[in-house]
């Protein structure tokens, strides 16, 4: 099968790293439960200028490389690879700015994958991947907007449950999961049935 996977929030545990720095820079005490939107501007009341300062500082302090992997992700991806699934990573990270850091991080953490796609100007992860010849059987995502787009295009989506996607409405093709262990069980089960 072709398994699509997002980076931030699914492979990389980015939110705690962002939040730690946001709290430090702006003297806040945000907890993960406060992050009820994909954008800190919306849920933490930060201005565009504050966010620009944050992203700049995060970059210059090597924040991208310090992000920890999501619990169990390496084991999960290794298993997918062993079972001969194709792992296609699709990220909305800006290629122009952090391609190098992204590649380096994936390498340092020995994450197996067949291809890495930067979303760039595409609005749909499904479409961006189709252009490269991949039609996903599964996609693991944390951003509800991308999840819904994939689900509408008949991809089975495993949505990592977080405060920033809890407002998302249920959809027959979206299954909310609490951990990658659940994703592993779902994908393995499918394999057995087929
Ligand atoms: Mg994400």
Defining traits:
alpha/beta, Rossmann fold, six-stranded parallel sheet, two-stranded antiparallel sheet, 9 helices
The distinct ligands, each listed once, are:
magnesium ion
What do the pLDDT scores average to?
95
Tell me what the CATH architecture of the largest domain is: 3-Layer(aba) Sandwich
Instruction: Say how many strands there are.
Output: 8
Please give the alpha-carbon distance between the first and last residues.
11 Å
Q: What is the radius of gyration?
A: 17 Å
Sketch the topology as an H/E string, one letter per element: EEHHHHEHEHEHEHEEH
- Please tell me the total number of domains: 2
What overall geometry do the principal axes of the alpha carbons give? globular
What is the top-level CATH class of the largest domain? Alpha Beta
Task: State the fourth-level CATH superfamily of the largest domain.
Answer: HAD superfamily/HAD-like
Largest sheet: 6 strands, parallel
The CATH topology of the largest domain corresponds to Rossmann fold
Short description:
This protein has 194 residues and is of the alpha/beta class. It folds into 2 domains: 2-13 and 68-193, 3-Layer(aba) Sandwich (Rossmann fold); 14-66, no CATH class. 45% of the residues lie in helices and 16% in strands.
Descriptive notes:
This protein has two domains: 138 residues, Rossmann fold (3-Layer(aba) Sandwich); 53 residues, no CATH class. It is α/β, with parallel strands linked by helices and 194 residues long. The strands form two sheets. A six-stranded parallel beta sheet has the order 5-4-1-6-7-8, sandwiched between helices. Strands 2-3 form a two-stranded antiparallel sheet. The mean pLDDT is 95. The chain is 45% helix and 16% strand. α6 links the parallel β4 and β5. The N and C termini lie close together (11 Å).
